[in-house]
Specification:
The protein is an alpha+beta fold and about 450 residues long. It contains 15 helices and 20 strands. The longest helix is centred in the middle third of the chain and has 19 residues. Its EC number is 6.3.4.14.
Protein backbone atom coordinates (compact mmCIF):
# COMPACT_ATOMS: atom_id res chain seq x y z
CA UNK A 1 0.00 0.00 0.00
CA UNK A 2 1.01 3.60 -0.56
CA UNK A 3 2.79 5.01 2.51
CA UNK A 4 2.44 8.78 2.00
CA UNK A 5 -0.22 10.67 0.06
CA UNK A 6 -0.43 14.30 -0.99
CA UNK A 7 -4.01 15.51 -1.48
CA UNK A 8 -4.06 18.12 -4.26
CA UNK A 9 -7.39 19.63 -3.29
CA UNK A 10 -9.24 21.48 -0.54
CA UNK A 11 -12.36 21.55 1.62
CA UNK A 12 -14.62 18.59 2.15
CA UNK A 13 -13.04 16.28 -0.45
CA UNK A 14 -9.54 16.86 0.91
CA UNK A 15 -10.82 16.16 4.41
CA UNK A 16 -12.63 13.05 3.13
CA UNK A 17 -9.50 11.64 1.46
CA UNK A 18 -7.35 12.43 4.47
CA UNK A 19 -9.78 10.53 6.71
CA UNK A 20 -9.41 7.31 4.71
CA UNK A 21 -5.64 7.75 4.37
CA UNK A 22 -5.18 8.06 8.12
CA UNK A 23 -7.45 5.06 8.76
CA UNK A 24 -5.17 3.03 6.50
CA UNK A 25 -2.02 4.28 8.22
CA UNK A 26 -0.97 6.42 5.26
CA UNK A 27 0.78 9.71 6.02
CA UNK A 28 -1.58 12.40 4.72
CA UNK A 29 -0.17 15.64 3.31
CA UNK A 30 -2.37 18.65 2.56
CA UNK A 31 -1.66 21.57 0.26
CA UNK A 32 -3.58 24.77 0.82
CA UNK A 33 -3.93 28.35 -0.28
CA UNK A 34 -3.36 31.28 2.05
CA UNK A 35 -7.14 31.74 2.26
CA UNK A 36 -7.68 28.17 3.47
CA UNK A 37 -4.99 28.03 6.16
CA UNK A 38 -7.54 27.71 8.98
CA UNK A 39 -9.77 25.01 7.49
CA UNK A 40 -10.10 21.54 9.07
CA UNK A 41 -8.42 19.63 6.25
CA UNK A 42 -5.22 21.56 6.89
CA UNK A 43 -5.09 20.88 10.62
CA UNK A 44 -6.19 17.24 10.26
CA UNK A 45 -3.42 16.34 7.81
CA UNK A 46 -0.13 14.95 9.15
CA UNK A 47 1.66 17.72 7.27
CA UNK A 48 0.51 20.78 5.33
CA UNK A 49 2.16 23.06 2.80
CA UNK A 50 0.94 26.47 1.60
CA UNK A 51 1.17 26.54 -2.19
CA UNK A 52 0.07 30.08 -2.95
CA UNK A 53 -2.52 32.83 -2.60
CA UNK A 54 -6.30 32.45 -2.80
CA UNK A 55 -6.47 32.53 -6.60
CA UNK A 56 -6.74 28.84 -7.63
CA UNK A 57 -4.47 29.41 -10.64
CA UNK A 58 -1.72 30.37 -8.20
CA UNK A 59 -2.39 27.61 -5.67
CA UNK A 60 -4.62 24.57 -6.32
CA UNK A 61 -3.91 24.66 -10.07
CA UNK A 62 -0.25 25.57 -9.62
CA UNK A 63 1.44 22.40 -10.86
CA UNK A 64 4.97 23.50 -10.00
CA UNK A 65 4.03 24.43 -6.44
CA UNK A 66 2.16 21.17 -5.87
CA UNK A 67 5.00 19.03 -7.21
CA UNK A 68 7.46 21.01 -5.10
CA UNK A 69 5.31 20.31 -2.05
CA UNK A 70 5.26 16.60 -2.90
CA UNK A 71 9.03 16.56 -3.20
CA UNK A 72 9.70 18.51 -0.01
CA UNK A 73 7.39 16.30 2.06
CA UNK A 74 8.49 12.99 0.58
CA UNK A 75 5.05 12.16 -0.79
CA UNK A 76 4.81 8.89 -2.67
CA UNK A 77 1.48 9.54 -4.41
CA UNK A 78 -0.92 12.34 -5.34
CA UNK A 79 -4.71 12.19 -5.12
CA UNK A 80 -6.37 15.06 -7.04
CA UNK A 81 -9.90 14.77 -5.61
CA UNK A 82 -12.41 16.38 -7.99
CA UNK A 83 -12.25 19.71 -9.81
CA UNK A 84 -9.01 21.71 -10.10
CA UNK A 85 -6.39 19.38 -11.68
CA UNK A 86 -8.29 16.11 -11.33
CA UNK A 87 -9.09 15.76 -15.04
CA UNK A 88 -5.94 17.41 -16.35
CA UNK A 89 -4.13 14.78 -18.43
CA UNK A 90 -0.93 16.84 -18.57
CA UNK A 91 -0.84 17.00 -14.78
CA UNK A 92 -1.34 13.23 -14.53
CA UNK A 93 1.55 12.67 -16.95
CA UNK A 94 3.75 15.12 -15.07
CA UNK A 95 3.03 13.43 -11.75
CA UNK A 96 4.04 10.05 -13.12
CA UNK A 97 7.06 11.47 -14.95
CA UNK A 98 8.18 12.83 -11.58
CA UNK A 99 8.26 9.30 -10.20
CA UNK A 100 5.06 9.69 -8.17
CA UNK A 101 1.96 7.49 -8.15
CA UNK A 102 -1.13 9.11 -9.74
CA UNK A 103 -4.32 8.10 -7.92
CA UNK A 104 -6.59 8.25 -10.92
CA UNK A 105 -7.10 6.95 -14.44
CA UNK A 106 -4.33 6.92 -17.01
CA UNK A 107 -3.67 10.17 -18.81
CA UNK A 108 -4.73 8.74 -22.18
CA UNK A 109 -8.17 7.88 -20.78
CA UNK A 110 -8.54 11.41 -19.37
CA UNK A 111 -7.62 12.83 -22.77
CA UNK A 112 -9.98 10.51 -24.64
CA UNK A 113 -12.95 11.40 -22.44
CA UNK A 114 -12.12 15.08 -21.99
CA UNK A 115 -13.41 16.04 -25.43
CA UNK A 116 -17.16 15.41 -25.60
CA UNK A 117 -17.19 14.82 -29.37
CA UNK A 118 -14.31 12.35 -29.25
CA UNK A 119 -15.93 10.65 -26.24
CA UNK A 120 -19.28 10.34 -28.09
CA UNK A 121 -17.57 8.78 -31.09
CA UNK A 122 -15.60 6.32 -28.95
CA UNK A 123 -18.72 5.28 -27.07
CA UNK A 124 -20.74 4.80 -30.25
CA UNK A 125 -17.98 2.57 -31.62
CA UNK A 126 -18.09 0.55 -28.39
CA UNK A 127 -21.84 -0.01 -28.68
CA UNK A 128 -22.82 2.48 -25.96
CA UNK A 129 -26.00 4.40 -26.93
CA UNK A 130 -25.41 8.06 -27.80
CA UNK A 131 -27.98 10.77 -28.52
CA UNK A 132 -28.32 12.04 -32.10
CA UNK A 133 -25.63 14.67 -32.58
CA UNK A 134 -22.57 15.82 -34.47
CA UNK A 135 -19.56 13.54 -34.89
CA UNK A 136 -17.28 16.53 -35.58
CA UNK A 137 -17.21 20.04 -34.13
CA UNK A 138 -19.62 22.50 -35.71
CA UNK A 139 -16.88 24.60 -37.34
CA UNK A 140 -19.03 27.68 -37.81
CA UNK A 141 -22.57 28.94 -37.41
CA UNK A 142 -23.69 27.62 -40.81
CA UNK A 143 -22.46 24.14 -39.89
CA UNK A 144 -24.33 24.36 -36.59
CA UNK A 145 -27.55 25.41 -38.33
CA UNK A 146 -27.23 22.55 -40.84
CA UNK A 147 -26.56 20.02 -38.05
CA UNK A 148 -29.54 21.22 -36.01
CA UNK A 149 -31.82 20.95 -39.05
CA UNK A 150 -30.74 17.34 -39.52
CA UNK A 151 -30.99 16.41 -35.83
CA UNK A 152 -34.27 18.26 -35.27
CA UNK A 153 -35.09 20.95 -32.71
CA UNK A 154 -34.76 21.43 -29.81
CA UNK A 155 -30.99 20.97 -29.63
CA UNK A 156 -28.34 21.33 -26.95
CA UNK A 157 -25.33 23.49 -27.82
CA UNK A 158 -22.36 22.23 -25.80
CA UNK A 159 -18.72 23.12 -25.36
CA UNK A 160 -16.78 20.04 -26.44
CA UNK A 161 -14.20 20.66 -23.71
CA UNK A 162 -16.76 21.61 -21.06
CA UNK A 163 -17.83 19.82 -17.91
CA UNK A 164 -19.65 20.23 -14.62
CA UNK A 165 -22.72 21.66 -16.35
CA UNK A 166 -20.76 24.59 -17.77
CA UNK A 167 -20.75 25.69 -21.40
CA UNK A 168 -24.24 24.57 -22.42
CA UNK A 169 -27.30 26.18 -23.98
CA UNK A 170 -30.65 25.08 -25.41
CA UNK A 171 -31.99 26.23 -28.79
CA UNK A 172 -35.61 25.64 -29.78
CA UNK A 173 -35.25 27.17 -33.24
CA UNK A 174 -32.69 28.64 -35.63
CA UNK A 175 -32.89 32.13 -34.15
CA UNK A 176 -32.10 30.80 -30.68
CA UNK A 177 -29.36 28.57 -32.10
CA UNK A 178 -27.56 31.54 -33.61
CA UNK A 179 -27.54 33.26 -30.23
CA UNK A 180 -26.56 30.17 -28.20
CA UNK A 181 -23.81 29.10 -30.62
CA UNK A 182 -21.97 32.41 -30.29
CA UNK A 183 -22.53 32.47 -26.52
CA UNK A 184 -21.28 28.90 -25.92
CA UNK A 185 -18.33 29.23 -28.27
CA UNK A 186 -17.19 32.46 -26.63
CA UNK A 187 -17.59 30.96 -23.15
CA UNK A 188 -15.68 27.81 -24.17
CA UNK A 189 -12.76 29.78 -25.60
CA UNK A 190 -12.58 31.89 -22.46
CA UNK A 191 -13.00 29.09 -19.89
CA UNK A 192 -11.45 26.05 -21.56
CA UNK A 193 -9.19 27.53 -24.23
CA UNK A 194 -11.09 25.47 -26.80
CA UNK A 195 -14.08 26.89 -28.70
CA UNK A 196 -15.17 23.58 -30.26
CA UNK A 197 -18.95 23.18 -30.16
CA UNK A 198 -21.12 20.06 -30.25
CA UNK A 199 -24.76 20.03 -31.38
CA UNK A 200 -26.89 17.30 -29.81
CA UNK A 201 -30.56 16.40 -29.47
CA UNK A 202 -32.17 18.04 -26.46
CA UNK A 203 -34.77 16.12 -24.47
CA UNK A 204 -37.24 18.47 -22.73
CA UNK A 205 -38.14 15.83 -20.13
CA UNK A 206 -35.18 13.73 -19.15
CA UNK A 207 -33.56 12.14 -16.12
CA UNK A 208 -29.87 12.27 -15.33
CA UNK A 209 -28.63 8.83 -14.30
CA UNK A 210 -24.98 7.84 -13.89
CA UNK A 211 -23.07 4.64 -13.18
CA UNK A 212 -20.06 4.35 -10.87
CA UNK A 213 -17.30 2.29 -12.44
CA UNK A 214 -13.99 1.10 -11.05
CA UNK A 215 -11.17 -0.09 -13.29
CA UNK A 216 -9.28 -2.68 -11.23
CA UNK A 217 -5.54 -3.28 -11.14
CA UNK A 218 -5.98 -6.59 -12.99
CA UNK A 219 -7.61 -4.84 -15.97
CA UNK A 220 -11.25 -5.65 -15.24
CA UNK A 221 -13.87 -2.89 -15.14
CA UNK A 222 -16.75 -3.29 -12.67
CA UNK A 223 -19.89 -1.22 -12.12
CA UNK A 224 -21.11 -0.32 -8.63
CA UNK A 225 -24.69 0.56 -9.41
CA UNK A 226 -26.32 3.76 -10.58
CA UNK A 227 -27.08 7.16 -9.06
CA UNK A 228 -30.03 9.43 -9.84
CA UNK A 229 -28.87 13.04 -10.26
CA UNK A 230 -31.91 14.82 -11.70
CA UNK A 231 -32.37 17.46 -8.97
CA UNK A 232 -30.29 20.23 -10.54
CA UNK A 233 -29.99 23.98 -10.82
CA UNK A 234 -28.23 25.48 -13.84
CA UNK A 235 -27.36 21.94 -15.00
CA UNK A 236 -25.48 21.37 -11.73
CA UNK A 237 -26.50 18.74 -9.22
CA UNK A 238 -28.05 19.43 -5.82
CA UNK A 239 -29.30 15.98 -4.80
CA UNK A 240 -28.22 12.45 -5.70
CA UNK A 241 -29.69 9.11 -4.69
CA UNK A 242 -28.95 5.44 -5.20
CA UNK A 243 -30.51 3.32 -6.47
CA UNK A 244 -32.47 5.44 -8.96
CA UNK A 245 -36.25 5.21 -8.43
CA UNK A 246 -36.62 5.28 -12.23
CA UNK A 247 -34.49 2.22 -12.97
CA UNK A 248 -36.00 -1.26 -13.13
CA UNK A 249 -33.84 -4.38 -12.70
CA UNK A 250 -33.86 -4.95 -16.49
CA UNK A 251 -32.91 -1.33 -17.22
CA UNK A 252 -30.23 -1.44 -14.51
CA UNK A 253 -28.66 -4.44 -16.19
CA UNK A 254 -28.48 -2.52 -19.48
CA UNK A 255 -27.10 0.61 -17.76
CA UNK A 256 -24.35 -1.27 -15.96
CA UNK A 257 -23.36 -3.31 -19.01
CA UNK A 258 -23.08 -0.15 -21.12
CA UNK A 259 -20.96 1.57 -18.44
CA UNK A 260 -18.58 -1.38 -18.28
CA UNK A 261 -18.25 -1.32 -22.10
CA UNK A 262 -17.52 2.40 -21.87
CA UNK A 263 -14.72 1.80 -19.38
CA UNK A 264 -13.28 -1.11 -21.32
CA UNK A 265 -13.23 0.97 -24.52
CA UNK A 266 -10.55 3.22 -23.03
CA UNK A 267 -8.78 0.68 -20.82
CA UNK A 268 -10.07 2.48 -17.75
CA UNK A 269 -8.33 2.19 -14.38
CA UNK A 270 -9.39 3.62 -11.03
CA UNK A 271 -12.70 5.34 -10.22
CA UNK A 272 -14.83 7.01 -12.86
CA UNK A 273 -18.45 7.76 -13.69
CA UNK A 274 -20.41 7.19 -16.88
CA UNK A 275 -23.16 9.81 -17.04
CA UNK A 276 -26.29 9.23 -19.11
CA UNK A 277 -29.59 10.83 -19.99
CA UNK A 278 -32.68 8.66 -19.52
CA UNK A 279 -35.88 9.31 -21.48
CA UNK A 280 -38.57 8.28 -18.96
CA UNK A 281 -41.17 7.96 -21.71
CA UNK A 282 -39.27 5.26 -23.62
CA UNK A 283 -36.68 3.96 -21.11
CA UNK A 284 -34.01 4.77 -23.70
CA UNK A 285 -30.75 6.09 -22.32
CA UNK A 286 -27.89 7.91 -23.98
CA UNK A 287 -24.26 8.48 -23.06
CA UNK A 288 -23.65 12.03 -21.84
CA UNK A 289 -20.03 12.07 -20.67
CA UNK A 290 -17.49 10.19 -18.59
CA UNK A 291 -16.02 11.87 -15.53
CA UNK A 292 -12.49 10.56 -15.12
CA UNK A 293 -12.25 11.14 -11.37
CA UNK A 294 -14.03 10.60 -8.08
CA UNK A 295 -17.47 12.24 -8.09
CA UNK A 296 -18.84 14.62 -5.47
CA UNK A 297 -21.72 12.19 -4.94
CA UNK A 298 -19.63 9.05 -4.40
CA UNK A 299 -20.84 8.61 -0.77
CA UNK A 300 -24.30 7.34 -1.81
CA UNK A 301 -22.61 4.48 -3.67
CA UNK A 302 -20.39 3.80 -0.67
CA UNK A 303 -23.38 3.46 1.65
CA UNK A 304 -25.40 1.25 -0.70
CA UNK A 305 -22.49 -1.03 -1.63
CA UNK A 306 -20.58 -1.00 1.65
CA UNK A 307 -17.26 0.10 0.15
CA UNK A 308 -14.83 2.98 0.68
CA UNK A 309 -14.21 4.25 -2.84
CA UNK A 310 -11.17 6.29 -1.79
CA UNK A 311 -9.61 3.16 -0.33
CA UNK A 312 -10.39 1.28 -3.55
CA UNK A 313 -8.77 4.11 -5.55
CA UNK A 314 -5.62 3.83 -3.46
CA UNK A 315 -5.56 0.05 -3.83
CA UNK A 316 -5.86 0.25 -7.62
CA UNK A 317 -3.11 2.88 -7.77
CA UNK A 318 -0.89 0.60 -5.68
CA UNK A 319 -1.62 -2.40 -7.92
CA UNK A 320 -3.62 -4.22 -5.23
CA UNK A 321 -6.83 -6.22 -5.48
CA UNK A 322 -10.07 -4.61 -4.24
CA UNK A 323 -11.44 -5.24 -0.76
CA UNK A 324 -14.65 -6.66 -2.26
CA UNK A 325 -15.46 -9.59 -4.54
CA UNK A 326 -16.13 -8.07 -7.99
CA UNK A 327 -18.35 -11.03 -8.86
CA UNK A 328 -20.58 -10.63 -5.81
CA UNK A 329 -21.47 -6.94 -5.77
CA UNK A 330 -24.95 -6.38 -4.40
CA UNK A 331 -26.66 -3.16 -3.28
CA UNK A 332 -28.41 -2.88 0.09
CA UNK A 333 -30.88 -0.18 1.06
CA UNK A 334 -31.11 3.37 -0.24
CA UNK A 335 -28.98 6.50 0.16
CA UNK A 336 -29.55 10.19 -0.60
CA UNK A 337 -27.03 13.04 -0.69
CA UNK A 338 -27.89 16.72 -0.27
CA UNK A 339 -25.26 19.29 -1.23
CA UNK A 340 -25.20 22.01 1.41
CA UNK A 341 -24.06 25.12 -0.43
CA UNK A 342 -23.35 28.69 0.65
CA UNK A 343 -26.09 30.11 -1.57
CA UNK A 344 -29.55 31.51 -1.11
CA UNK A 345 -32.32 28.87 -1.28
CA UNK A 346 -34.44 30.69 -3.87
CA UNK A 347 -32.20 31.93 -6.67
CA UNK A 348 -29.17 29.82 -5.69
CA UNK A 349 -26.79 32.77 -5.86
CA UNK A 350 -23.56 32.49 -3.82
CA UNK A 351 -23.62 33.94 -0.31
CA UNK A 352 -20.24 33.41 1.37
CA UNK A 353 -19.46 34.64 4.87
CA UNK A 354 -18.22 33.80 8.34
CA UNK A 355 -19.77 30.72 9.97
CA UNK A 356 -21.29 31.75 13.30
CA UNK A 357 -23.10 28.48 14.04
CA UNK A 358 -22.30 25.02 12.69
CA UNK A 359 -23.87 21.98 14.36
CA UNK A 360 -24.02 18.85 12.25
CA UNK A 361 -26.90 16.37 12.61
CA UNK A 362 -26.22 12.90 13.96
CA UNK A 363 -28.15 9.67 14.30
CA UNK A 364 -28.65 6.33 12.60
CA UNK A 365 -28.09 6.46 8.86
CA UNK A 366 -26.73 10.04 8.95
CA UNK A 367 -23.30 10.97 7.58
CA UNK A 368 -21.89 14.46 7.04
CA UNK A 369 -18.84 15.09 4.85
CA UNK A 370 -18.00 18.72 5.59
CA UNK A 371 -15.25 21.14 4.73
CA UNK A 372 -15.90 23.65 7.49
CA UNK A 373 -16.48 24.04 11.22
CA UNK A 374 -17.82 26.86 13.36
CA UNK A 375 -15.56 29.90 13.20
CA UNK A 376 -14.36 29.26 9.63
CA UNK A 377 -15.16 31.61 6.78
CA UNK A 378 -16.58 30.55 3.43
CA UNK A 379 -14.66 32.75 1.00
CA UNK A 380 -15.79 33.76 -2.50
CA UNK A 381 -12.73 32.24 -4.17
CA UNK A 382 -13.98 28.66 -4.53
CA UNK A 383 -17.05 26.53 -5.10
CA UNK A 384 -19.92 27.20 -2.71
CA UNK A 385 -20.12 23.60 -1.41
CA UNK A 386 -19.79 23.56 2.37
CA UNK A 387 -20.85 20.02 3.20
CA UNK A 388 -22.63 16.93 1.96
CA UNK A 389 -25.45 15.55 4.07
CA UNK A 390 -25.80 11.86 3.26
CA UNK A 391 -28.56 9.69 4.70
CA UNK A 392 -29.30 6.02 4.26
CA UNK A 393 -32.05 3.59 5.17
CA UNK A 394 -33.45 0.19 4.36
CA UNK A 395 -35.87 1.81 1.91
CA UNK A 396 -36.17 5.09 0.01
CA UNK A 397 -39.01 6.14 2.29
CA UNK A 398 -36.89 5.57 5.39
CA UNK A 399 -33.96 7.48 3.86
CA UNK A 400 -36.26 10.43 3.08
CA UNK A 401 -37.62 10.52 6.64
CA UNK A 402 -34.08 10.52 8.01
CA UNK A 403 -33.16 13.27 5.57
CA UNK A 404 -36.04 15.43 6.79
CA UNK A 405 -34.94 15.02 10.40
CA UNK A 406 -31.29 15.67 9.55
CA UNK A 407 -32.06 18.85 7.58
CA UNK A 408 -34.15 20.14 10.49
CA UNK A 409 -31.34 19.35 12.95
CA UNK A 410 -28.54 20.95 10.91
CA UNK A 411 -27.78 24.27 12.66
CA UNK A 412 -26.03 26.67 10.29
CA UNK A 413 -25.80 30.45 10.59
CA UNK A 414 -23.61 33.03 8.91
CA UNK A 415 -23.33 32.32 5.18
CA UNK A 416 -26.50 31.97 3.16
CA UNK A 417 -27.40 28.30 2.77
CA UNK A 418 -29.82 26.08 0.86
CA UNK A 419 -31.11 24.00 3.80
CA UNK A 420 -34.59 25.60 3.44
CA UNK A 421 -34.70 24.42 -0.17
CA UNK A 422 -34.04 20.84 0.91
CA UNK A 423 -36.76 21.05 3.57
CA UNK A 424 -39.13 22.09 0.78
CA UNK A 425 -37.91 19.41 -1.64
CA UNK A 426 -38.33 16.62 0.89
CA UNK A 427 -42.04 17.52 1.17
CA UNK A 428 -42.51 17.89 -2.59
CA UNK A 429 -44.98 15.33 -3.97
CA UNK A 430 -43.13 14.97 -7.27
CA UNK A 431 -39.85 14.17 -5.52
CA UNK A 432 -41.53 11.88 -3.00
CA UNK A 433 -43.15 9.90 -5.83
CA UNK A 434 -39.76 9.23 -7.40
CA UNK A 435 -41.23 10.24 -10.78
CA UNK A 436 -39.26 13.44 -11.32
CA UNK A 437 -36.86 14.80 -13.95
CA UNK A 438 -34.26 17.53 -14.42
CA UNK A 439 -36.98 20.20 -14.51
CA UNK A 440 -38.13 19.63 -10.94
CA UNK A 441 -36.25 22.58 -9.42
CA UNK A 442 -37.52 25.06 -12.02
CA UNK A 443 -41.07 23.84 -11.40
CA UNK A 444 -40.60 24.43 -7.68
CA UNK A 445 -39.43 27.99 -8.37
Amino acid sequence: MIESLLVANRGEIARRIIRTAKRLGIRAIAVHSEADAGLPFVTEADEAVCVGPANPAQSYRNVEAILAAAKSTGAQAIHPGYGFLSENADFARTVEASGLIWVGPRADAITAMGDKINARNLMAAAGVPVAPGTTDPAADLDAAVAAAAEIGYPVMVKAAAGGGGMGMGVATDETALRTEYDKVRSFAERMFGDGSVLIERYFPRVRHVEVQILGLADGRVVALGERECSVQRRNQKLVEESPSPAVSPELRERFLAAAVRAGEAVGYRNAGTVECLLDPATNEFFFLEMNTRLQVEHPVTELVYGVDLVEEQLRVAAGLAPTFDPDALAPRGHAIELRINAEDPKRFLPGPGAIKTWVEPTGEGVRVDSGYIEGNTVTPFYDSLMAKLIVSGATRAEAIERAKAAVAAFELAGPKNNLPFFAELLENEEFLSGDYDTGIVSRMR
